């Protein structure tokens, strides 16, 4: 007889309190993020929690099942992403609860997703054996973290000389960074991002994802959108998430026509500068790829002088044969594009 109770329904207050008090709780664990997933086309949120007999939450997973919009890609794309991983009390009971939780999660997702991926936002290495017991194995994945608990002058001095030059050049060229206050402007940002994904031959999430962020997270002070303006034309933009003392660089993109003006450099610096002035402790660059692969974005992020970390990602293949076919299908799709 299990000592735990499994639930898919939680009160918003209890859920929010558990995430807030948990040291590794992030914006991706919150009920607000589940609401964003609900409103996103092609996304299906999966909430599972384990409580004790008193109703106290011991472990929680807030995953999202993703499928691409394209009918051609749908069969090759179903995957479940757990941003930040499951969170749980770091006690013997909490660790037993998360093992039970991941077993139940497998029953729910195993036949729907080709694989599950836990995208770590903190160093989870002390729980490596725990995740291995659930069938998840760590793959290297890099990121850059900037300490904002310093003066702006100190943070600026860590930015590489060439990047400082690009930021200054963008400012001298008259590029202005403006906060988005009109929902209709979210689509302007999205169009820049769509161009970037098209050039990279990668499928992109639906516009409804960013509209949901604007509708749900922005009013709560958990997200911001910015656009870069040059001579009365928008030339780039970014979406940023904020939670506790952390700023998450979510998405940023620029029109290829204006890349030489370095709006991306200025968009990043402006949010870093804002974070310093508003008491944030960390700027999370949102990933820098696998160290086994060349990645131009990594070189760009490196120039902001943050600390290189390798928190990695845990992955579990639910259907090896289908995953192999999916990998081949995706390569064919990119070739055709």
Tell me the overall shape.
globular
Largest sheet composition: 8 strands, mixed
Output the structural class: alpha+beta
The quaternary organization reads as: single chain
Going by CATH, the homologous superfamily of the largest domain would be Gcn5-related N-acetyltransferase (GNAT)
Radius of gyration, rounded?
Answer: 20 Å
Give the rounded overall mean pLDDT.
92
Q: Give the helix tally.
A: 12
Q: Helix and strand string, N-terminal first?
A: EHHEEHEEHEHEEHHEHHEEEHEHEEH
Q: What number of domains?
A: 2
* Fold-level CATH name of the largest domain: Aminopeptidase
Number of strands: 15
Strand content: 25-35%
Brief synopsis:
With 337 residues, the protein is an alpha+beta fold. The protein has helices at residues 12-21, 31-38, 71-77, 92-109, 128-133, 152-158, 161-172, 186-200, 207-217, 263-277, 296-302, 320-336; strands spanning 5-7, 43-51, 57-66, 79-83, 87-88, 115-119, 137-139, 143-147, 176-179, 223-230, 233-243, 246-254, 282-284, 307-309, 313-317.
Task: Indicate the topology.
Blueprint: E1 5-7, H1 12-21, H2 31-38, E2 43-51, E3 57-66, H3 71-77, E4 79-83, E5 87-88, H4 92-109, E6 115-119, H5 128-133, E7 137-139, E8 143-147, H6 152-158, H7 161-172, E9 176-179, H8 186-200, H9 207-217, E10 223-230, E11 233-243, E12 246-254, H10 263-277, E13 282-284, H11 296-302, E14 307-309, E15 313-317, H12 320-336
Parallel strand pairs: 4-6, 12-13
Antiparallel strand pairs: 1-2, 2-3, 3-4, 3-5, 6-15, 7-15, 8-13, 8-14, 9-10, 10-11, 11-12
Helix pairs in contact: 2-9, 3-12, 7-10
């Amino acid at each position: 007889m299990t000592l735990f109770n499994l639930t898919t329904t939680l009160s918003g207050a209890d859920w929010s309190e558990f995430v807030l008090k948990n040291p590794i709780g992030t914006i991706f664990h919150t009920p607000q993020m589940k609401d964003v997933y609900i409103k996103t086309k092609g996304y299906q949120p999966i909430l599972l929690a384990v409580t004790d007999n008193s109703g106290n939450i011991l472990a929680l997973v807030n995953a999202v099942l993703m499928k691409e919009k394209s009918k051609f890609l749908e069969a090759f794309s179903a995957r479940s992403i757990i941003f930040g991983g499951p969170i749980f009390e770091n006690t013997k009971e909490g660790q037993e609860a998360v093992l039970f939780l991941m077993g139940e999660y497998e029953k729910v997702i195993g036949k729907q997703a080709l694989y599950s991926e836990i995208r770590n936002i903190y160093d989870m290495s002390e729980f490596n054996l725990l995740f291995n017991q659930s069938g998840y194995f760590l793959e290297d994945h890099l990121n850059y973290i900037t300490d904002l608990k310093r003066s702006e002058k100190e943070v600026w001095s860590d930015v590489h000389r060439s990047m400082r030059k690009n930021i200054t050049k963008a400012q001298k060229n008259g590029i202005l960074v403006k906060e988005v206050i009109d929902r209709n402007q979210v689509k302007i940002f999205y169009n820049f991002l769509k161009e970037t994904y098209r050039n990279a031959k990668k499928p992109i999430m639906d516009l409804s994802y960013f509209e949901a962020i604007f509708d749900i997270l922005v009013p709560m002070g958990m997200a911001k959108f910015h656009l870069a303006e040059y001579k009365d034309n928008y030339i780039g933009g970014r979406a940023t998430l904020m939670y506790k003392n952390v700023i998450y660089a979510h998405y940023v993109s620029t029109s290829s026509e204006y890349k030489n003006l370095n709006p991306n450099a200025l968009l990043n610096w402006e949010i870093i500068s804002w974070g310093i002035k508003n008491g944030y402790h960390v700027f999370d660059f949102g990933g820098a790829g696998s160290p086994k692969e060349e990645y131009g974005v990594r070189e760009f992020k490196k120039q902001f002088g943050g600390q290189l970390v390798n928190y990695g990602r845990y992955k579990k293949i639910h259907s090896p044969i289908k995953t192999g076919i999916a990998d081949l299908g995706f390569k064919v799709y990119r070739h055709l594009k």
